[in-house]
Design a protein that fits this description.
single chain, 384 residues, alpha+beta, Rossmann fold, Dna Ligase, domain 1, D-amino Acid Aminotransferase, Chain A, domain 1, 3 domains, six-stranded antiparallel sheet, four-stranded antiparallel sheet, 13 strands, 16% strand, binds adenosine-5'-diphosphate, binds magnesium ion
Length: 384
Amino acid sequence: MTLIGLAYNQKPEQQTLPISSSADVREAEGENSRSEEEPPSSRDEFAEWDSPETITAVESALKKIGKVVRLEADEDFPDRLRRTRPDIVFNIAEGLHGVNREAHVPAICEFYGVPYSGSDPFTLALCLDKARTKETLNFHRIATAPFTVVHSAGDLEKARALPLPLFVKPLHEGSSKGITDKNLCWDYNQLATQTEFLLENYHQPVLVEQYLPGKEFTCGVLGNGDEAVVLPLVGMNFETLPEGALPIYSFDAKFVWDRPENPLDIFECPAKVSPTLRSAIESTVLAAYHALGCRDWARVDIRLDAAGVPNLIEVNPLPGILPNPEDNSCLPKAARAAGIGYDELIESCLRYAAARQGVALEGRQKFPSTAMSAQPAMAAAGLA
Ligand SMILES: Nc1ncnc2c1ncn2[C@@H]1O[C@H](COP(=O)(O)OP(=O)(O)O)[C@@H](O)[C@H]1O
Ligand SMILES: [Mg+2]
């Protein structure tokens, strides 16, 4: 029987949901008081890590294919991996420290010669640097907003070359960490204030880029090479945000205003777009997926510019995969719209990874029919 190692980072118990009493939540609610002992990043420190529920759901999907051994990606991971020597590692670990944290588990797997799922260390590190990602996209002539990187307040002059309004965000984060309505800057004073706030509180450079005023989509991709398919597009309906909120997918939109017990109806999947726009978005998404070297699966964020052209915001080669439909997790949502259930999504990723690396898995090889199976469902939804 195939031995599958499941590499993950589990959220500490009290961080399974954001702390509603935290400073940023109070700020979101209009109170600007922020205590010294509670830095603004405290509420989102572990936002990328997985909940016990997600880890169990992935484990149970993998159990249909082989024997699963949990390999928590803590400091004992290398030793645990070396002793366990699974046939393949299913990697959902977001990593512990530093700007290359997402690359560590795949790099350790490569070091021990253990096959693993998903993108390689280089792609994971590249995509966690939003500026380096955009440089690569520019080289490949894939549309992305003009930008500059601010390392310290002294760099702010550079940003004056970019036309207002501008959007600022931490260079190396995910899960909408550090993203609030204040990040949309209408003048250079606000740009300076918010950039300095992010530099100080997130301890990393700040990406300053042109604000993209158009619609936003997030797009799941499954497969490799010519077989890679874009799943039904997820459109964001920002009108469902509380009154006065800006049309951005902020930390509050993601974790505070959208709760399983009271879900925001923010996503439309399949998004209602013209066939021309859909195909323009899909081409941009696939071009970026291939240019950045993504493998097996990913989720790609797109926004339209003032002219309606799809621009790439960022690529998530370690996509969120919350199992409950009420949790509004976009890759599982897009897969469901294509007729691919949660277990089948996990299985597809594993099978694509196994096929690439010559790992034999028991059971029916569903790919490439898994990708193909998206087609009838997409056709039924008027998408193919
Ligand atoms: N250039 C931009 N113009 C307009 N909105 C943006 C821009 N960049 C980011 N956003 C908004 O901020 C959100 C989070 O940014 P993103 O780069 O996707 O960060 P994360 O890695 O946290 O998901 C996006 O979903 C989008 O709503
Ligand atoms: Mg994003």
